[in-house]
Amino acid sequence: MRxxxxxxxxxxTDARLSRMPGESADVSExxxxxxVRIDPELLTxxxxxxxxxxxxxxxxxxxxxEFLGDSILGQAVTVKLFRENPRLDEGGLAKRRASLVSSVxxxxxxxxxxxxxxxxxxxxxxxxxxxxxxxxxxxTVEAIIGAVYLDAGGDVATDLALRLIExxxxxxxxxxxxxxxxTSLQELAARHAAPPPQYVVTDTGPDHNKTFHATVTVxxxxxxxxxxxxKKNAEMAAALQAWTLxxxxxxxxxxxxx
Length: 258
Hints:
Layout: H1 2-16, H2 27-34, H3 40-46, H4 50-55, H5 63-84, H6 90-101, H7 103-112, H8 123-127, H9 134-152, H10 154-169, H11 173-179, H12 181-191, E1 198-204, E2 211-218, E3 222-228, H13 231-257
Helix pairs in contact: 1-3, 3-9, 5-6, 5-9, 5-10, 6-11, 7-9, 9-10, 11-12, 12-13
């Protein structure tokens, strides 16, 4: 498995050498942000979105690494939650795990380390804001975890996965918000005497494969976006991002008063 991934990575690296300036930043900077050394060719493969691969002659993309990383992340989070929450039943554990490995959560992790600037995207995807799309960011986080597993082994990959989600664990309120983000956002708005959140949803793609894009605004102050395979999922993703932004503002305000 490692040998095949390394061969694919070399193919991607060769293509990347001819990319246009600005398509992706130097991966050495990303390694520093991750706090782990990864074979540069494997890391480049993990950063290669299918749109970039298609525009460069069908070179390998990061989807296989994403598949691997998803399993490693899920196991790492499951074991951590099981060990640290002995009184939580199966349903509670499952909900917490879902809130930590969802696309919205992983996209939040990705934005925290500035991952978007490193992702290799096709021209169309890049010009349409692909570097900040939650689905692309989340998939790339998983692909990086998969690359670390192949290059450095399971222990290092697990350690990276847990370090990446650590900021999410610092706010226990997000577990409730992740389960019902629209209600949580509405309750947060009400506490600030603000009107209910307003959602605008659009869609792209053919009828059989639509992607929905939602924008939510709270009192004209907090605006966030989300996407999903249904209107409901897109609104939930936008609501959770807005709740996260608003909660962070509340935290900063309390800190400044203290």
